[in-house]
Amino acid sequence: MKRSDRLARAFLVSLVALVLGACATRPLQSVEPAPPSVPGSVLKSIKLDPALEDRLLALDPEHISGDEVHSTLAAAPAPRLVLLHGGIYPVYLAMTSFAEFLVGMGYPEQRIRRPDGVLDSLYSYSPYQDSREVAGLIAWYYERDGVRPMMVGHSQGGVQAVKILYDLAGASDAELHLWNPITDVFEERTTIVDPLTGEKRPVVGLGVPYASAVGAGGAALLLPNQWSMVHRLRTIPDSVEDFTGFTISVDFIAMSFPGARSASEFHHNGTAKVRNVVLPSAYNHVVVPVTRELATSEAMRDWINAYVPDRPGQVETLPPGPSDNVLWAADVWYSIKKHWCLEAQRLIRAKRALAGAQ
């Protein structure tokens, strides 16, 4: 039996047990707020050579080569990547594989790896975690880094990603507290000092530049912790600029099928840019993020770095060797590179504007 088939069977066997346990949530804890950032402190802390800043500003976010990743972009502040794994043990290992793929492609590991030393996953967050914590984490990182985090969700983690977008959009009609990912508790604050403008702003209303979901829906929506998303999942709020929804052509777990394509498509309800990508039916729902090996081949890395979404004929140019899940990996990597570049350029322009005003 193939490894992917064994994992898929384990997924189905575990589903009933997870339905029984999905209602459990841990009680909220809070700590005294950490001192807010001093206006301008983040921008002043960025120490980049002016020539490097010029090269970063000259990059074309839509077309970034592997050489540009390593020679230029890797020297820029990188957004925190919030990876959200699926809900069936041990599917988190699939997202670990994707994290290692990203590191192999040139993304800084410390911007993916979790800082809290958890034992279940070093790189990704559980879809059973309170979504408000992750929303608060996004604000916590943005205030300190000056670049907005991005999210990638798989299976139930994809549902969780959209749920977090709704939290940030204020759909719960409640204030959001900052969540400290190191101490694993909420802070009392519900506002941050925007690192680029120096102005105080609430966590609610903060947006992320990019988020994606693969294999979201279907069985995951049967779980009590995701019931609130049954009628929301496919509608993307304005708390993200660029969202990509991936569906597998035939996916019995996410319940996506060729004859009912519209039921699996995502759409915006305002300003978010939303793309829908259909992956081949040969892709397996459980192991889509298993992509570590793709980054071990120089020829495959070159192909992935040259990939552009929706360009015809790219599949025919794939180099020899294993290419499982490469279309998903290449598309997500394209967007991560793009928004890494855009966030760095946004930060540099704000830094230069502050310097010019003094």
Protein described:
The chain is of the alpha/beta class. It has one domain. It has helices at 3-21, 41-45, 50-58, 66-71, 92-105, 131-145, 156-168, 298-306, 326-357, and strands spanning 30-31, 81-84, 124-125, 150-154, 179-180, 185-187, 191-193, 200-202, 208-214, 235-236, 240-248, 267-268, 273-279. The strands form 4 sheets. It has a 6-stranded parallel beta sheet with strand order 3-2-4-9-11-13, with helices on both faces. It has a 3-stranded mixed beta sheet with strand order 1-6-5. A two-stranded antiparallel ribbon has the order 7-8. Strand 2 (81-84), helix 5 and strand 3 form a beta-alpha-beta unit. Helix 6 (131-145) crosses helix 7. The longest helix has 32 residues, at 326-357. The chain is globular, with a radius of gyration of 20 Å. Residues 1-33 have low confidence and may be disordered.
What does the oligomeric state look like here? single chain
Side by side, the strands of the main sheet go 3-2-4-9-11-13
Topology order in helix (H) and strand (E) letters: HEHHHEHEHEHEEEEEEEEEHH
Rg for CA atoms = 20 Å
Question: Kindly, what is the distance between the CA atoms of the first and last residues, rounded to a whole number of angstroms?
Answer: 67 Å
Mean pLDDT, to the nearest integer, reads 89
